Amino acid sequence: MTYIGKDIETAVALLENNKVIAIPTETVYGLAGNALNPCVVNKIYEIKKRPLTNPLIIHLHDTIHINKYVKNIPAIAKKLAEHFWPGALTLLLPKNHLIPDIVTAGLPHVAIRIPSHPTTIKLLRQLDFPLAAPSANPFGYISPTTAEHVKKQLFGKIFYILDGGPCTLGLESTIVGFDNDTPVIYRVGSISPEAIKKIAGKVEINNKHTARPISSGMLPSHYAPHTPLYLTNNVDELLKTVSRSGTGILAFKNLCPVIVEKNQEVLSASGNLDEAAHNLYKALHQLDSLKLDRIIAERVPNVGIGIAINDRLERAANKK
Ligand code: TXA
Ligand code: MG
Question: Per residue in 272-290, pLDDT tens?
Fold first, then answer.
């Protein structure tokens, strides 16, 4: 069985007993367990069917505790942390011996985030270990932004889903590493490159596919529905080349007049990119549940968080 509940004490008890549960964050739901226990971390990989080469983010509730797990924090990382934490920023920092190698897939850096979701902050305060938590979806599939999404995807695989309501942001954190004093974005996310640059003075983006991706945000195919997804700048043009029946539309602002409304999702009628990010995964889950032949998705303006939305859509469209 898999239960959805709001009881933090139950969550604490399960985590202290080396169980893996789902937790809410402001970005997406996470599949969480004791990051300091390699057996528990291994269970997370198994439940997610995630390759052991793809490392996990650890979650803490206070910057003070980070010193316990890393060798040092570059000055520029401190500056970003002060500005964006708690929040949707993940920092890659040199790990010390307390972080098991399985957490980082053998890499020398550990990904750390202080989430801002009040339920999860309360939960973390009661634990004396950090939580390793990837997004609570089977590897490669759409990330969950509600407790119901998690239940649908992981039913029977975990006992408890701590319900914190729909995720306010709805898109994963931005992952930032450091090349000397230059922040390098390995996964674009809820915090835009411009916002990082404003604080750090400079920023580079390196989320292209490499032979051994160090971040799944670098994998060419990810975040994908089961239904084949096609990405376009012009829905009307693409519709001329495919059958209208069996086609779903993921539109940015406007419904498409030639497709039945029930097969369409609009990300933001007012054209607001934050709202579009918030609705993205919910809309993909909904369209995928209709079991259509194809989904046509429209690119959003490539600015601010729109960069991360387009990035997710590109990868969702790359499923083979
Ligand atoms: O918003 C988020 O970041 C959510 C919530 C639950 O915090 N978590 C999340 O985790 O998206 P996940 O595992 O689905 O994606 C984490 C990404 C992966 O692409 C992983 O490869 C990368 O972070 N990552 C983790 N540790 C890393 C490391 N040491 N070096 C490089 N990349 C790392
Ligand atoms: Mg993920």
Answer: 999 999 999 999 999 999 9
Q: How many other C-beta atoms can be found within 10 angstroms of the C-beta atom of residue 288? A: 19
Which among 47, 154, 178, 216 is the best mutation to test ligand 1's pocket, defined by most ligand atoms within 8 Å of the CB?
216
Question: Under a CB-based contact definition with an 8 Å cutoff, are residues 2 and 155 in contact?
Answer: yes
Cβ-contact 35, 95 below 8 angstroms: no
Mean pLDDT of the chain: 95
Ligand 1 pocket: which residues have CB below 6 Å?
Answer: 25, 27-28, 30, 54-57, 90, 92, 104, 107, 109-111, 113, 133-135, 172-173, 175, 186-187, 214-217
Amino acid at 148: E
Q: Is the pTM of this model over 0.90?
A: yes
Among the listed residues 203, 169, 186, 133, the one whose alpha carbon sits nearest the alpha carbon of residue 309: 169
**pLDDT tens-digit series, residues 204-261:** 999 775 545 555 556 666 778 999 999 999 999 999 999 999 999 999 999 999 999 9
- Please name each of the domains of the chain with its CATH number: 3-205 (3.90.870.10), 229-317 (3.40.50.11030)
